[in-house]
Amino acid sequence: SAAMKSLQFISAEAFVSNAEFARKNLSGIARDLFPLLFKASYLLEQGEVIHDLVENWPLVDFNMGKLLGTTVDYQEDLSHRTCSVCLESCLTGLRDYVLNHPSSCVKRLKLVDLTGMKDVEVQFCRCKKTMGRWARTQLLSKLCLELLFYLQQRQCDPGIFEISIDVLIELFVTDRNYELLMQALLKKSYCPLKICCVALRFDNLALQKFFSIIKLTDLSLLRKLEIVHNVRLEMEHLEILLNSIHFPLLMSLTLPARTFNVQRFTATDEQMLTNIGEKMGEIMQLTELSMSFSILTGRIQKLLSPLKTPLKMLDVSNCSLNHADMVYLANSFHANHLEVLDLSGHNIPDLYPSTFFKFLSHFSSVLRILTLEDCNIQDTHVNMLILGLSPCQKLQEFKFLGNPLSSQALKHLFTFLCELPMLKNVEFPVPRDCYPVGVTYPIDDVSLCRFDHQKYESIAEELNLILLQANREDMKASTPLFGSYDAAVQETKNELGACLIKSFKETLEKFTASLNKTS
Questions:
Q1: How far, in Å, CA of 398 to CA of 467, rounded?
Q2: Quick one: which of 96, 225, 248, 219 has its CA closest to 165?
Q3: What is the value of pTM for the model shown?
Q4: What was the pLDDT predicted at 512?
Q5: Does residue 269 surpass a pLDDT of 60?
Q6: Residue 172 has what pLDDT?
Q7: Has keyword Repeat (predicted)?
Q8: At what angle do helices 133-153 and 175-186 cross, to 10 degrees?
Q9: ω into residue 442 within 30 of 0, thus cis?
Q10: Strand 165-173 relative to strand 193-202: parallel, antiparallel, unpaired?
Q11: For residue 509, is pLDDT > 80?
C-alpha cells in the first residue's frame, strides 16, 4: 500500500519511527500536522509517540474515526485496528493532557470521539492484542477515577477544574466491569473527562444493576441500546424502562430473548403490550428493532403500528409469527423501507409463502441484508426464492443456514446469486445430501456436525468454482455452523461461559432436589 502514501505521510512515518527523537521535538511541530503524525504513529504502533501527541493535542477535537479513516495523505482506513498498545496510549495520553499542562498552555480540546473504532475478527497490528469495546469501557472508567484521585492528592493548578472534555464512547457493561463504570458515572460531574454514551450494550448483568447504570447515564445522546443474553428483562421491566426514561435520539433497540411470551398472556399483559407499543411510538428516531426469540404470535401489529418512523432494520427471528403477523408486515408502512431483515426460524413455505414474497417485493429495491436461517426452504422452493430475490439489486448479504437444500439446488441458487451485483457475503447450509438419510430439520446441535465432511468440502469447492467462473472473486461463501463472528461475544466469552455453567449447575441442583423430594 506504499503507493497510496503521499510524500508528506512518508516523512511523518520517518519522523515518528524514532520515538525518542519525535518526543523531544514535538514542541516545534505545527498544530495542523498533529493528525498526520497521529495516523503515522498508529500505523507504526509507536505507543509512546501516540501518548505524547494526545497529551499535547493542540486542536479542538480528537475524532478517532476521522483521524484513522481514509485521509488525503494515506487512503488506508485504520479504524478497524483496535490495537491494544495504540488505544491504551491514546487514553492514557488523554488523562495526562488534563494533568500535565502548565497554565500558560492554551487548552483547546473539547471533544474526544472514540465511536469510530470498528471491532473486527482479523487484526493486522503487530502486538496482536486487541482492545475491544468492553475493555475500552473498563479503561476509560479506570482513567476517570485515577484522574480524580490525582486531582484530590495534589495541590493542582485551579485551571484544571475548568477543563471539560466530552468523551463520546460506546459503552459495554457486564457484571465484571460494572463496579468501575458505576463509580466513574457517580463522580462524573467532578471529572474533567465527561463520559458521553452514544451506544450502550448490556450483557450478564442483574436487573437492579442494569437500572442503576441507566439512571446514572446521560441518555440525551444515546443512539443504540442493546440488552442481550444474560439480562433477565421481561415485559414488565421493559414497560418500567420505557415509562421512566426518555430516549430523544434512540435509533436502535435490541431486546433479550424471551422478553415477550404471548402464550402466557392475561388481559393485564395485553394492556401492557399496548402500552409498550405506544411508548415505543414516542421514540421518534427509532428505525432498528431486534426482538429475537420472543413469542409474539399475532401481536406484531400491536407493537409496530404505533411507530412514527418506518423501520429500516427488523429482527424477529424465532418469534413464532403467524399468518396474520405476516399480512400486517406485508401491508405496513415499514414494508417499503426495510434494509435489513431477519425472519429465521419461521416455516415460510408452509405458513405464508405468497404473503412473504409480497412482503419482500415491497422493499426489494432497498434490501441490503437478508437472513432466512432454519426456514424449511427446500429444493422445490428455490425457483420461487430466485424470483423473489431477482429485484434485490442492492443485496450485500444473504444468510440461509439450516435449510434442507441439496447440493444440486445450491448450485442452481449460486448461479443466480452471481448476478446480484452488490452481493459480498453468502452463508449457505451444509447440503442435505451430506447428512445421513432421515435427518430431521431443524437439525439439533448434536447432529449438526455429523455430516460427511469430505463430501461437503468437494461441494463447497464446486460452489466456489461457480463464483470464480462468473468473475465474482469479491463474493465470500461460507458455512459458519455456529453463527457468524460477533466481536462483543468474543470479547466476553469467558465471563458468559462461566455464567452459563453456573446457571446450568443451579438448574441441575434444583432438579436433583425436586427428585429427592419425590423419591
A1: 15
A2: 96
A3: 0.92
A4: 74
A5: yes
A6: 97
A7: yes
A8: 40
A9: yes
A10: parallel
A11: no
Counting every residue written for the chain, the total comes to: 519
Residue 459, C-beta contacts closer than 8 angstroms, at least 6 positions apart: 407, 410, 431, 434
Burial string for 215-251 (b: 16+ CB within 10 Å, else e) reads eebebeebbbbbbbbbbebebebbbebbeebebeebb
**Alpha-carbon distances of 310 from 40, 206, 321, rounded to whole Å:** 42, 33, 20
> Which pLDDT score, from 0 to 100, does residue 275 have?
97
Question: b/e per residue, 175-209, with b = 16+ CB within 10 A?
Answer: ebbbebbbebbeebeebbbbbbbbbbbbbbbeeeb
Give the residue carrying C-alpha cell 511541530. Answer: 29
pLDDT in tens, 46-104: 999 999 999 999 999 999 999 999 999 999 999 999 999 999 999 999 999 998 865 55
The Cβ of residue 97 has, within 10 Å, a number of other Cβ atoms equal to 23
Three cell numbers, residue 354: 405468497
Residues 22 and 65 sit within 8 Å (Cβ to Cβ): no
pLDDT tens by residue, 132-150:
999 999 999 999 999 999 8
Query: What are the distances in angstroms from CA 275 to CA 233, 240, 241, 250, 306?
Result: 16, 10, 12, 18, 10
Q: Are 489 and 133 in contact (CB under 8 A)?
A: no
Which DSSP string corresponds to 34-100?
A: HHHHHHHHHHTT-HHHHHHHHHT--SSEEEHHHHHS--SSB----TT--BHHHHHHHHHHHHHHHHS
H runs (alpha helix) in 332-393: 348-351, 353-363, 382-389
- Give 443-458 pLDDT, tens digit per residue: 988 899 999 999 999 9
